[in-house]
């Protein structure tokens, strides 16, 4: 178990979350880069919901809008039109300062390149989001998270003294430390060997299953995608397919089809 959390606990009920509730909802989201004849429509009227507590993979051919989807859904970038709601909050209603605070307290991020700060120890990297959010670093919470991702023995090291897999575990601990509602992962296994990738995907799976956190992962890897509850496929900036309980073979088939019809 990754420990317990209070935010999603209904009064008098077990830890859980209303499965009918979307943790992330995009409504008619369009994102254009540039203007006039050279404008690129990266997302084209995307409307989709991601169920709270689910693990969702976002896939599609190169240039289909995956990164743009993730950036808009996570409030790292603003859509040209349409609305993004996260945990019921319309991100468009927040000014830059409020949006930054919202991301720090409600969202966790995991990147392909780990993005750990080299001058900080593992422990300082993990607790950084708490300090940025102005929250205390309760020892118990830090222990729970570091134990759950298996980095307790590494707390005094610097990132340069860790393997890639260990660095990604630390990055996941950092993403989990604020108990965010939603974790966005951008190709989290892209730099890892297959065995280490399996471990990391297991941790993301555990965050969704044990903690009812919502995990949204962009990946190009059908084997990684089969760990998800569902795969959302993008092509030319639109959601063109959803597959529940995906197998790698199924995902590979859809990807081949989408590349062929580009
Ligand atoms: P993916 O992640 O699926 O490869 P992206 O979201 O990165 O797709 O890109 C979708 C489309 O938007 C592509 O045509 C890409 O060239 C374009 N694009 C992405 N970012 C920018 C940008 N900052 N400026 C101009 N065009 C962009």
Structural write-up:
With 262 residues, the chain is of the alpha/beta class. The protein has one domain (20-260): Rossmann fold. Helix content is 34%, strand content 25%. It has eight helices and ten strands. It has helices at residues 66-73, 96-106, 122-132, 139-149, 164-176, 194-211, 222-225, 248-260, and strands spanning 22-33, 40-51, 55-59, 81-86, 89-90, 107-111, 182-186, 214-218, 230-235, 238-244. The strands form two sheets. A six-stranded mixed β-sheet has the order 6-7-8-3-9-10, with helices on both faces. A hairpin with a 6-residue loop joins β1 and β2. Mean pLDDT is 90; it is low at 1-19. Adenosine-5'-diphosphate binds at residues 33-34, 40, 42, 60, 62-68.
The largest pleated sheet is described as: 6 strands, mixed
Count of helix runs: 8
CATH class: Alpha Beta
Order of helices and strands: EEEHEEHEHHHEHEHEEH
What class would the helix/strand composition place it in? alpha/beta
Cα Rg: 18 Å
Based on the model shown, name its key terms:
34% helix, binds adenosine-5'-diphosphate, 8 helices, globular, 262 residues, alpha/beta, disordered N terminus, 10 strands
Write a brief caption for the model:
This protein is α/β, with parallel strands linked by helices and 262 residues long. The protein has eight helices and ten strands.
């Amino acid at each position: 178990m990754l420990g317990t959390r209070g935010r999603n606990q209904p009064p008098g009920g077990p830890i859980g979350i209303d499965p009918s509730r979307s943790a992330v909802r995009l409504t008619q989201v369009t994102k254009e880069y540039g203007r006039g004849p050279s404008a690129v429509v990266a997302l084209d009227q995307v409307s989709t919901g991601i169920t709270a507590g689910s693990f969702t993979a976002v896939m599609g051919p190169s240039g289909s809008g995956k990164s743009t989807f993730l950036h808009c859904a996570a409030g790292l970038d603003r859509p040209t039109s349409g609305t993004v709601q996260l945990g019921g909050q319309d991100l468009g209603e927040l000014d830059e300062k409020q949006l930054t605070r919202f991301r720090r307290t409600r969202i966790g991020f995991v990147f392909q390149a780990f993005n750990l700060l080299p001058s900080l120890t593992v422990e300082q990297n993990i607790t950084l989001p708490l300090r940025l959010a102005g929250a205390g670093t309760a020892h118990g919470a830090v222990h729970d998270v570091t134990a759950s991702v298996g980095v307790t023995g590494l707390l005094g090291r610097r990132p340069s003294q860790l393997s890639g897999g260990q660095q990604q575990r630390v990055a996941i601990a950092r993403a989990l430390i604020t108990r965010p509602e939603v974790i966005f992962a951008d190709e989290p296994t892209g730099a890892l060997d297959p065995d280490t990738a399996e471990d990391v995907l297991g941790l993301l799976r555990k965050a969704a299953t044990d903690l009812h956190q919502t995990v949204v992962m962009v990946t190009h890897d059908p084997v990684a995608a089969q760990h998800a509850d569902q795969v959302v496929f993008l092509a030319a900036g639109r959601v063109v397919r959803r597959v529940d309980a995906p197998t790698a073979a199924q995902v590979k088939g859809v990807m081949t089809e989408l590349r062929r019809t580009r």
